[in-house]
Amino acid sequence: MNSQPVLKVENLRTHFKLSKPHPFAEAPIVYALDGVSFEIKRGKTFGLVGESGCGKSTTALSVLRLVEPTSGSVKLKGTDICQLTRKELRHSRRFMQIIFQDPYSSMNPRTTAGEIIRSPLKILKIGTPQEQNDRVEELIKLVGLRPEQRNLYPHQFSGGQRQRICVARALAPNPDFIVCDEPVSALDVAIQAQILNLLMRLQREFSLTYLFISHDMAVIQHVCDHIAVMYLGKIVEKTNRRSLFLNVKHPYTKALLSAVPTTDIKTKRSSAPLKGDVPSPMNPPSGCRFHTRCHLAEACCFEEDPRLREILPDHWVACHLA
User: Fold this and answer.
1) What is residue 288's DSSP assignment?
2) Strand ranges (DSSP E) for the chain?
3) Are 161 and 150 in contact (CB under 8 A)?
4) Alpha carbon 18 to chain centroid distance?
5) For the residues of 23-77, what is the DSSP string, one character each?
6) Residue 67 in contact with residue 61, Cβ under 8 Å?
7) Angle formed by the axes of helices 189-206 and 159-171, to 10°?
8) How far apart are CA 192 and CA 188, in angstroms?
9) SS3 of residue 237 by DSSP
10) In this predicted model, which residue has the larger pLDDT, 271 or 23?
11) Average pLDDT of the residues in 55-83
């Protein structure tokens, strides 16, 4: 059952054309995603990690076609959703959902919690009104809220409770695949642990498949089975959780890991700190996109874009020096 991937992304590109600065100029293009490929098997969690602006959220939105990809394919249970018509895509929405980063801004403040959870069922026309009502009651209990709280409004909940509502809403149509777009970054540390444990428990109970996006390496290590490190619209390292944290290969990944706070000096990973800022995705560097900040860069890094290659079993790296 786990042999076939629920989601398979191949060579996904998403470019945004901006307004012309003046009538005779060419429209600038933002190369937000530039050839991203990965797959996720049923019941597993695939993590995307990297600095802000590296393309993590664009990947999530492109996979769900909330943003139209420029090219590539996104196969959900074998069906390429990039080729679906609007009507066909609407039907497929019930199999893929998303949990957003900020629970408050992703909810209608004038709608009760019960109606927020019910909304996917109404939009997708799933079940009768009574069946929808029963489903809402079931989900409220499932995510750890009290039945009477279905009549409260978003401002009457804490941040963690709001995220529980968002989790319940994502589960409402009984999806196979859920995108978790930094679902705990807006929460206190103690509440983060509760939400992460809730997501992991629901995954075990319902064989859910997650695409988990975060900039926090500790969170990624806790919840993900496989991890991809992104930099400026490309995947630079991709492997399983154990191999990434014990046998890291890419200098960018090493820099990210060295930035994780630790009280144990002996386990502190030695790595040159990142210098400078992420280059503009409108004008990415030639060759390896990381060479402008890499302390190991050689002549080949300035000229040739490294391809993602398997240097160890199930460990892929895009680096000339790995």
Assistant:
1) S
2) 5-17, 29-41, 45-49, 71-76, 79-80, 96-99, 177-181, 209-214, 226-231, 234-240, 309-312, 315-317
3) no
4) 24
5) TTSPPPEEEEEEEEEEEEETT-EEEEE-STTSSHHHHHHHHTTSS--SEEEEEET
6) yes
7) 20
8) 6
9) strand
10) 23
11) 94
* Token code pair at residue 92: 């497929």
CA distance to 7, 246, 283, 289, 301, per residue, from 304 (Å): 30, 28, 16, 10, 6
pLDDT band at 23 (very low <50, low <70, confident <90, very high): confident
The CB-side HSE value for 231 (13 A sphere, CA atoms) comes to: 29
Distance CA 174, CA 262 (A): 39
The CA-based diameter of the chain, rounded to the nearest angstrom, is 67
What is the value of pTM for the model shown?
0.91
What separation, in Å, do the N-terminal and C-terminal C-alpha atoms of the chain show?
34
For residue 309, CA distances in Å to 11, 174, 194, 235 come to 14, 36, 37, 11
Q: Crossing angle for the helix pair 159-171 and 113-123, nearest 10 degrees?
A: 20
Length of the chain: 322
**Residue pair 123/59 in contact by the 8 Å Cβ criterion:** no
